[in-house]
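Hi R.,

Here's the chain you asked about this morning:
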Amino acid sequence: MLALRLTRTAHLAVHLRRLLVAVASAGTGFLLLCALGYALSHPDTPGAAALRLAWCAAPLAAAVHLAVAVARTDPGTRPRAGLSAIGLGPGRLMAVSATTTALSAVLGSVAALFLFLHLRGDLTGGPPSGRVAADALAVGQSLPAPAVLTLLVLVPVIASGAVAHTLRPRDPRPAAATAPRGYGRFGAYGWGKARETFGAYGRFGSRTAVAAGSRAAGAARAGTGGTLQTRASDPRPPAATDGATQTLDAVPSHPADVTTQTPETDPEPTPRPPNTTALPWGVAVLAAGLTVETYTGNASPAPTPGTAPSAGVLIGWALTALGLALAGPGLTHLCGRLLQAARPGALRLLAGRVLMEESHRIGRPLGVVAAVAAAAYVAATVYDGDGPAFGPLATLGALLVAGCTVATLLTAAVAAKHARADTTDALLRLGAPPSTLRGAAAVRAAALLALFGPLTLIVAVLAALPLDH
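And the predicted structure, written out as tokens:
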């Protein structure tokens, strides 16, 4: 009920983003049902039916990626101060967000089922539609209800599970750093910070110096105005002679008397820098994907009309997209560093700092968009005028993947803009002109285009070489 109430009272922009999730779920569910219809119409070719079903993994992954991005920018399920007191902690809000995503995806799956039955002619009782091939609709055959239900719940289950995993509660406290384990004195195995050399224990004056140093470190410094200096090793501090005398590090006689008398508080944990160590792994996975695609492209003929590319091409493209997605944050962080090189001015410095800060938000969607753009180039090269033509289902799948990736990138960009709203307001209050902020945004966009544009073209050309024969 809480998820339904938050869905009903949300803003128009939130409803539009959830509607995009429902549309993506509807398109993916329709493609899955068409793959089921093809399998029912061609029971003698299970390999081709399985290949069609495997190619549905691309729009499925794009729809799940969009659902996660929309859930992360949902203001209704954002943790706020005081909500834990009424039972709306991070775990409960995560469950509400996953439920909201599941509701949007279920709505799309139901719409896909009605569209599929309408094209078959089951709802109207008329002839089937000629817009989709009859073998993809399994006209004249009964649909197995368990298979239909299994395919339609894929998007809601996977999307809600991904949202729950992404928004799971995390411990904000930094992990305690453990010291390297080593050998202590006389060969004792323990957690010593420094290893003592041979003969250090028996050396004359070594223990005395250590004891004197510990006592000096435990002594409290006195404040100005005649305050008393007291050592923490004293069993009982001397009584105060006047009101200005104050003991800072007194040892209490009872554990209950321990109070914090220093006004200083523990510093807040600094935010962790964006993880750019995945850049080498992304390059390695990208190279592996191009290798797999080159090998399978040279070993198999070009796809004929009405058939899907081979499974090796699908695996190669999946690895290529994964590699670009892993390398995206590191490349965005590197782009921000390059903008600040060679004595930068205020404009380049601001643009580079923002790119470095937002690399973990927009880097991965940028990598996925680059992979989709490279795939579009390969499709335009292989599926030219003399090659096989795109069918309606292939066109729908391509539009779904492209639309979901672009929508995910725009959603991540809007979330990054909202995240730095306080910084933007502070700059405006300090007197920064709005034209400077717009110029920094233009510099960021130009820098990302200058980096990801040639990279996308190189990947696309390398991927199209083995297929264009």
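The radius of gyration is 31 Å.

Let me know if you need anything else.
M.
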